[in-house]
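Sharing a chain and its predicted structure for anyone who wants a worked example. Both blocks are below, sequence first, tokens second.
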Amino acid sequence: MKTLALLPLFLLAACGGGAADEEKAPEPTALVRTAPAELGSSNDSITIYGATEATPGSAHVLVAPAEAVVVSVAAPTGTAVGRGQVIVTLRPSPATQAAIAKAAADAGQAQAAYQRALRLRKDGLVSDADVEAARAAMASANAARIASGMGGGGVALRAPVAGTVQNLTVKPGDQVAAGAALAAIGTVGDLRARFGVDPAIAPRLHPGLPIAMDTINGAAPANTAIVGVDPQVDPTTRLASVYVAVPAGMRVGAGEPLRATVQVGATQTGITIPYAALLDDGGRSFVFVVKNGVAKEREVSPGNSMGDRIQILKGLRPGERVVVEGGTALEDGMKVSEPSTGAKK
């Protein structure tokens, strides 16, 4: 009986020993790599994006003189053309053909009425005012006939200047409205670049400010200058506009996507860290600072980036070590180590 009474005590002791063993289990340690926050100099510069476009007045637009059907396209977008070269051939649409026929008939009737008025005036049966009214009616009818801009056989739209065909999207068989822009001829060398910038930064930019730009794939770099700043916000992009002259030697066409770097302030000295150390959580920027083998999350205020480093305006002191690899798997207060060198102090 005494043995049975002692059995629960042995069981409790056994359970108590297991719990103590679990409490003594080692805390998890994350493997990371760190780098120091350093003092360094940085240019207060920004990267902006945009595209080339024809300068105002340099693009000569070809429009349909009347409702018409596209017969052929002789020079697609991107074609270099000479002055007078055929770009698109049109023929009247059924509605335009009917209008041309009516205008021709009206002009014929007005011509006959004018000739009749002249004969009657010679016989003294009508006044000079009647003759003038008949002449004006004939002139109006002829103007209406010519206004269609094409005869029954159609019309060929030609390049008014030498240049490059741009924005031609129609194809044979398409019906186009009267006055529709069918293509533009951009004259060689008359290009500018338009970049979008944050409206808050636009007041810090001005004509003459140096700017380095290149194509998105890194080709055709050029150093040039800002020629104009429009602080008015585009309703679609919500950005202000910066205009830059494109040097002729850059060899880009209209619509070419570009990026550029422009310095908007003086050189500054401050704290920088590797860009890989900066983390983001819903717009909140932070890093993990390692001290005594423990990673602590710390909110920071980033500034401008410079290659693979970024300026930190607030939140770090020089010499503090930040996690540059393994940070995405960390939690605040987690122990860490660096396998190659051990934990950094």
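Comments welcome. The helical segments are 2-23, 94-122, 128-147.
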